Amino acid sequence: MIEQLSRNNVLPPPDEGTDSLIAKLRGYLYEKKCVIVFDDVWQIGFWGSIRHALPQNSKGSRVIITTCNEQAAAFCKGSSIGLQSPSKEKAW
């Protein structure tokens, strides 16, 4: 995500820990307003892993997650405040 969002083509060092990468990403996004799309998510615990890397600020950023996996959708919705999902008709 850091590479994609910052348009930096240099990968982080392989020995850099997860906490350091999360801190970098949060720092980069903190003052920004953005829309981030995670498309075709199938892993049930995905949102639990990624939500800590995204800052909670008052800039109005949004995260969109698409999935066909009802269990993954339920996990994302159940583990977040303010996460909304459209009806099946609207989603279609």
Structure write-up:
This protein has 5 helices and 2 strands. It has 92 residues and is mostly helical. The protein has one domain (2-91). Strand 1, helix 3 (46-50) and strand 2 (62-65) form a beta-alpha-beta unit.
Strand order of the largest sheet: 1-2
Are there runs of 5+ residues with pLDDT below 50, and where? none
**What is the string of helix and strand elements?**
HHEHEHH
Strand percentage, roughly? 5-15%
Oligomer: single chain
| Biggest β-sheet description | 2 strands, parallel
- Structural class by helix and strand composition: mainly alpha
What is the total number of structural domains? 1
Based on CA inertia axes, which overall geometry fits? globular
Helix fraction?
Answer: 25-40%
> How widely separated are the two ends?
28 Å
- The number of helices is 5
Number of strands: 2
* Mean pLDDT, all residues: 78
- What's the gyration radius in Å? 14 Å
Keyword list:
92 residues; mainly alpha; two-stranded parallel sheet; globular
What's the structural blueprint in terms of helices and strands?
Blueprint: H1 2-6, H2 18-29, E1 35-38, H3 46-50, E2 62-65, H4 70-78, H5 88-91
Parallel strand pairs: 1-2
